[in-house]
TrEMBL record:
<dbReference type="InterPro" id="IPR042502">
    <property type="entry name" value="TM7SF3"/>
</dbReference>
<keyword id="KW-0472">Membrane</keyword>
<feature type="transmembrane region" description="Helical">
    <location>
        <begin position="488"/>
        <end position="507"/>
    </location>
</feature>
<feature type="transmembrane region" description="Helical">
    <location>
        <begin position="436"/>
        <end position="454"/>
    </location>
</feature>
<feature type="transmembrane region" description="Helical">
    <location>
        <begin position="297"/>
        <end position="317"/>
    </location>
</feature>
<keyword id="KW-1133">Transmembrane helix</keyword>
<feature type="transmembrane region" description="Helical">
    <location>
        <begin position="324"/>
        <end position="344"/>
    </location>
</feature>
<dbReference type="Pfam" id="PF25992">
    <property type="entry name" value="Ig_TM7SF3_N"/>
</dbReference>
<keyword id="KW-0812">Transmembrane</keyword>
<dbReference type="InterPro" id="IPR025256">
    <property type="entry name" value="TM7S3/TM198-like_dom"/>
</dbReference>
<dbReference type="Pfam" id="PF13886">
    <property type="entry name" value="TM7S3_TM198"/>
</dbReference>
<dbReference type="GO" id="GO:0043069">
    <property type="term" value="P:negative regulation of programmed cell death"/>
</dbReference>
<feature type="transmembrane region" description="Helical">
    <location>
        <begin position="350"/>
        <end position="373"/>
    </location>
</feature>
<feature type="transmembrane region" description="Helical">
    <location>
        <begin position="380"/>
        <end position="399"/>
    </location>
</feature>
<feature type="signal peptide">
    <location>
        <begin position="1"/>
        <end position="20"/>
    </location>
</feature>
<dbReference type="GO" id="GO:0005886">
    <property type="term" value="C:plasma membrane"/>
</dbReference>
<keyword id="KW-0732">Signal</keyword>
Length: 558
């Protein structure tokens, strides 16, 4: 071969190499060259972590060095507050080798590899993202979280999948596998694995990134979950791995699942933790999505609730006819809302219009009942029943968890029994019951707008019961509301308003008739008196009609 052919051979070789490189990178996004993030091996009690600024359209390689041979597997994790990130076992995405989300991670088997722990953290967003990353290590006696995956993206999926709608948060996880040292032929069909589900609340309306990272730090290990988290449920082998929680928008909530191998003969039961996940119940990337007073309609409604609540709390019994109209309006609006949601596919505008019309008709109807009959024991039923409903809702709002209450029949039976206690008591003490009901309900109407403004959760005393009546499957949801400083302040304010409102009404009404008369109750009395004093007296004319004591009506409790 002549030396003249060497340049042509060199050009052909260079073309083949460049074509091969181009084919190999054809599926890759043009990322920036990676920077290694090296994490030192430490025990899970003192985790080595990094907070990195992951640039737009870039990736970094996370590595761990000095991993001892006693480590069987490691879980590499990365957490972002708002934006989605990706983690992969390789630079190139492929089916079954990567996961996307805000709290992601992969499990790396170190027992069969000498290359240590390595994963790629990828940002496909056009913005920089701040990410908390760390690695947890487990020995051969620890169960493998997500090792029996059936639905998630990767063969071993140690993360949680969190989703939410307008009423509930759903937390899904895959079943764990037995530890590698068991050598079980069917590692996914064992009843010796015990699961515990924990959650942890952030401070209400705290959307700072530091609080988010601190919450993840608290619950990333089994020990941290047991120490700082609240255990929600514990279960063994079950095909149902979904946990449901009542939604409280604007309150950050961390979820974590731990799995323990109970079949270990030693006293120490080895356990491992799934990757903790997080939600605010709203989208921080969408403006005003986490604000409760986001529309003019809601602001006007809260203002009306505040002023009407003050009127009812301190003068509801004095203006009895206004109280009747408002009580009928609220009662009929609530009933019509439940009926419309359960039996009609109505939008928000339709629900608002339907409940308003039915409430107005109900208020006028109940005012007509008082105008026509004037029976206090009958007329105070709506407001006393509202008091019973509120107190029963408060009882079931408490952080109590009974398995039999997940059944709708059991729940509503217990709820109605508690509901009827106060109406039965106050049916013979109508003035007392009416004043107390006005003070309690009016005070609650005052604190609800303040609750919306400062971000408390007392409004969910009623909302959770309405959800139970209208949302399918809400009976399986864990309520466990966040009770924090704002809630304590509003609770004390509620108690103070109830005491002051009831005291003020009792002092004001102590020398008045128990109930003010209906508008037209004087007309038949005046007509009867005129008939009794006319010249056309018969043997059927009452003999004591002209008695002065009978010219003024007497109002009692019945």
């Amino acid at each position: 071969m002549s030396f003249l052919h060497l340049p042509f051979l060199f050009l052909i070789f260079s073309f083949d190499i460049s074509s091969a490189i181009e084919r190999d990178t054809s599926n890759l996004v043009p990322f920036i060259q990676p920077n290694d993030v090296v994490l030192q091996f430490r025990s899970n009690d003192s985790v080595d972590e990094r907070i990195i600024n992951l640039e737009a359209n870039s990736y970094v390689r996370i590595r761990s060095i000095n991993v001892p041979k006693s480590v069987a597997f490691a879980v590499v994790q990365a957490h972002s507050q708002v934006h989605r990130i990706s983690m992969s076992q390789a630079r190139k995405f492929d089916v079954g080798n990567h996961v996307n989300g805000t709290s992601v991670g992969i499990l790396v088997d170190t027992s069969s590899s000498n290359s240590g722990v390595m994963a790629y953290l990828i940002n496909t967003q056009p913005i920089n993202i701040t990410v908390l990353t760390f690695i947890l290590y487990y020995d051969r006696s620890a169960p493998i979280p997500g090792g029996c995956n059936l639905e998630f993206e990767m063969p071993v999926s140690p993360w949680l999948r969190v989703s939410y709608n307008q009423s509930m948060v759903n937390v899904d996880h895959e079943l764990a596998a037995l530890p590698p040292n068991q050598g079980d032929v069917f590692p996914c069909e064992s009843e010796s694995l015990q699961y515990e589900v924990y959650h942890y609340y952030l401070v209400q309306r705290d959307f700072t990134e530091d609080s988010f990272f601190n919450a993840i730090r608290l619950l990333r290990t089994v020990k941290g979950a047991q120490e700082f988290g609240t255990e929600i449920r514990s279960f063994g082998f079950t095909p149902t791995t979904r946990s449901r929680f009542s939604l409280y928008p604007g309150v950050g909530q961390v979820f974590v699942v731990t799995v323990t191998h109970m079949g270990e003969p030693s006293r120490y039961a080895p356990s491992s933790a799934y990757i903790p996940s997080f939600t605010y119940g709203c989208d921080l990337s969408v403006e005003s999505d986490c604000q409760t007073l986001s529309s003019t309609y809601v602001k006007v409604l809260c203002a009306l609730s505040l002023f009407i609540g003050l009127l009812i709390a301190f003068a509801g019994h004095r203006y009895f006819q206004i109280e009747m109209i408002l009580a009928g309006f609220v009662a009929f609006s609530a009933v019509s809302y439940v009926i419309l949601v359960n039996h009609f596919d109505a939008n928000v505008t339709g629900l608002a219009a339907g409940t308003s019309v039915m409430g107005l008709l109900g208020g006028l109807l109940w005012w007509f009942v008082w105008w026509f009959w004037g029976i206090p024991a009958l007329s105070v039923l709506p407001v006393v029943f509202m008091l019973g409903f509120l107190m029963s809702s408060l009882l079931f709002y408490l952080p109590i968890s009974f398995e039999f209450l997940t059944n709708d029949f059991n729940f509503w039976s217990a709820f109605f029994c508690c509901w009827l206690v106060l109406p039965v008591i106050f049916v013979t003490f109508t003035r007392l019951g009416n004043i107390v009901s006005c003070a309690v309900i009016g005070s609650y109407a005052v604190i609800v707008p303040i609750d919306h403004y400062i971000g408390s959760s007392l409004k969910y005393i009623v909302i959770n019961v309405v959800r139970r009546a209208t949302v399918h499957g809400f009976g399986r949801a864990v309520l466990d509301p966040p009770y924090q400083d704002n809630d304590l302040i509003l609770t004390l304010a509620w108690i103070g308003l109830v005491i002051s409102g009831a005291t003020f009404q009792f002092l004001r009404e102590r020398r008045r008739p128990p109930f003010s008369p209906p508008a037209d109750i004087w007309r038949p009395l005046r007509w009867t008196r005129l008939r009794g004093t006319s010249n056309s007296r018969t043997e059927q004319t009452p003999l004591i009609m002209d008695s002065p004591s009978d010219l003024v009506p007497h109002y009692g409790t019945a």
